[in-house]
């Protein structure tokens, strides 16, 4: 996969992809080729590909990212920043999920006292969200404009026109609709002394949250979505210029 992207001649790029979740206990001897092949076959057959917002590996040239916020790696939000920053900078982002098999054994998370690793209210997650520009936080593997195909070929996933049409459709079919709903709902709730938070954050102690801790009013949450889509469309022009210059900056 790395060789394929190097053949493109791009100076800056990002390979990213989702993991395949597998129920597995015990150990695997990687020196035993037959055991590895059997496990690979089992993972491909019984494994479950994670959701598009689950970004679990990143490959990029040294020095591509500058001014990286001090994220807690492995917690939520840092992966959004990795993909969003590359897209908004106009660098090619390649989704490798359909070709590369990255296996993740299912497990619980007793070290943070949770059943899932990206629990919204643990300190690392709250801190990561506070460091993240929300306009680049809504970027998944499906937003990559390139993809790795069988035979290790890197091809355009969406034409620029289709990408713009996709963003416009999302703006009017999702964000504008919810913006109207939330504007009305938040006005009603505020009259009763209550408030609405982003649907992606369901805090256990809403009364203790502040904007610094990750509280985002629902109206601003939708405006951030709209702004993010606008930036994504503008980034297409950057990418076309970047590719037109041979991928060098």
Task: Characterise the protein shown here.
The chain is α/β, with parallel strands linked by helices and 249 residues long. 39% of the residues lie in helices and 10% in strands. The strands form two sheets. The protein has a five-stranded mixed sheet. The longest helix is centred in the C-terminal third of the chain and has 32 residues, at 160-191. It starts with a helix and ends in a 5-residue tail after the last helix. Residues 199-215 have low confidence and may be disordered.
What is this structure's SSE topology?
Elements: H1 2-6, E1 14-17, E2 20-22, H2 33-46, E3 48-49, E4 57-59, H3 78-88, E5 93-95, E6 103-105, H4 123-131, E7 146-149, E8 153-156, H5 160-191, H6 218-244
Parallel strand pairs: 1-5, 2-6, 5-7
Antiparallel strand pairs: 1-4, 2-3, 7-8
Helix pairs in contact: 5-6
DSSP helix fraction: 25-40%
The rounded Rg comes to 20 Å
Order of helices and strands: HEEHEEHEEHEEHH
Quaternary status: single chain
Q: What is the residue-averaged pLDDT?
A: 79
Q: Name the shape in a single word.
A: globular
Distance between the termini: 22 Å
The amount of beta strand, in percent, is 5-15%
